[in-house]
Write a structure and sequence with these properties.
The strands form two sheets. This protein has a six-stranded parallel β-sheet. A six-stranded parallel β-sheet has the order 9-8-7-10-11-12, with helices on both faces. The protein is globular. It contains 14 helices and twelve strands. α10 crosses α13 (333-347). The protein has helices at 18-34, 47-50, 62-87, 115-118, 125-138, 150-157, 200-213, 233-244, 259-267, 283-290, 301-307, 319-331, 333-347, 352-360, and strands at residues 4-8, 39-43, 91-94, 106-110, 143-147, 165-167, 187-191, 219-223, 251-255, 271-274, 295-298, 312-314. It folds into two domains: 4-168, Rossmann fold; 187-347, Rossmann fold (3-Layer(aba) Sandwich). It has 363 residues and is an alpha/beta fold. Helix content is 44%, strand content 15%.
Length: 363
């Protein structure tokens, strides 16, 4: 029986930050481990050879970012269509919003969220308009949209009225629980880019209240790229607040971290806090639960969809409520243990086998 040829474009991996980067890693791994026998997966690049290439990752220099965009355009619209023809691919999966305009095969385009449209002011005007146009052109022929959650699907339906949109929960198995690495437990953790919608200042303010009103020696780790599309405004704002309130010795900001570092941070954290005002999925929520640490989230719809009753919620942008929830899980050992147990069980639902089987239903 002739196999279905599915071509997965992973070119964007060389510049992707944590969200799309993890998505690509999980998709590649899942297809190799759990892909159907009647499907032949073809990968545009070997991501293992790209992992240590960080030259293009969120560079603070505009000309470097545009050099990548030129390479990206040439790849998507010229080189990739040729590769698809030579490989006789039946289906193309683009996990990075953009597909080539001209392609004989059917296209599955992963659009993770609607943030380019919803938070337009968070992106450089010229780049945003250019990128949105690329997205729209890639959806013109033989294309359907896959997104990451029911919440994201609702947001995208208002933009792409005439396109079929399906949501598939992704997996996140790169983080694991290692009982050899969890002796200290002396900090609260957040991992993510310093961008406005992450609302990190609310977390920092809650942490200040916690330090002012308890005798705890707990620290706070804010890991992740300090600039967002070349903009360090949020990082500078938080740094000023930390300095003004004498929190320099209590808050660590290590910048962008790799997979090995992320595993270490998760396994040695006391708890994870996710204060975002909006997300398309929220990979760190799953990763923290897999690392068997309790999670505190803002009470937004996407976290309720993904986290269920396995996490504890605080009122969005309310640092007083977050402070109270921090105290609660640290003092209440029964609640602490319950969150770890529930979280570990729920995280198993977001596995690689379910992830790739969701895609294979489309083939």
């Amino acid at each position: 029986m002739k196999k279905i040829k599915v071509y997965i474009d992973v070119f964007y991996y060389i510049t992707a930050l944590s969200g799309i980067k993890t998505y690509i890693e999980e998709l590649v791994t899942a297809s190799k481990k759990f892909g159907r026998s009647d499907v032949e997966y073809i990968f545009s690049h070997d991501i293992d050879k790209l992992k240590n290439k960080q030259f293009f990752i969120n560079s603070k220099y505009r000309f470097i970012r545009w050099i990548f965009q030129i390479r990206y355009l040439i790849w998507k619209q010229i080189i990739l269509p040729v590769k698809l023809l030579s490989s006789s691919a039946d289906i193309l999966i683009c996990p990075d919003y953009v597909a080539p305009i001209f392609s004989r095969c059917k296209k599955i385009v992963v659009i993770h969220d609607n943030f380019f449209w919803k938070y337009s002011k968070n992106y450089p005007i010229l780049w945003r308009n250019y990128f949105i146009r690329l997205i729209q052109l890639g959806l013109l022929r033989n294309a359907e949209i896959v997104t990451t959650s029911s919440y994201s699907k609702l947001g995208l339906k208002n933009i792409f009225h005439n396109k079929k949109i399906t949501y598939l929960y992704q997996s996140s198995e790169r983080i694991y629980y290692d009982n050899k690495k969890n002796s200290s437990k002396d900090y609260i953790l957040h991992i993510g880019t310093f961008e406005k919608r992450k609302d990190l200042l609310t977390l920092v303010k809650a942490f200040k209240l916690f330090k002012d009103n308890t005798s705890s020696n707990l620290k706070l780790v804010l890991a992740g790229s300090k600039n967002f599309n070349g903009n360090k405004q949020i990082y500078k704002e938080i740094k000023r607040y930390i300095s003004k309130n004498n929190l320099t010795l209590s808050i660590t900001m290590p910048g962008y971290i790799n997979k090995k570092q992320a595993i270490n941070y998760y396994n040695n954290a006391l708890c994870y806090v996710f204060p975002s005002i909006d997300e398309g999925f929220g990979i760190p929520l799953i990763e923290a639960m897999r690392a068997q640490i309790p999670v505190i989230c803002s009470d937004i719809k996407i976290f309720e969809e993904i986290g269920g009753d396995s996490v504890i919620y605080f009122k969005k942008q309310n640092y007083n409520d977050l402070y109270n929830k921090l105290k609660l899980i640290i003092k209440n050992k029964i609640l602490f243990g319950s969150l770890v147990s529930k979280g570990n069980k729920r995280a198993k639902l977001f596995n690689q086998k379910n992830f790739i089987k969701g895609f294979e239903k489309h083939y």
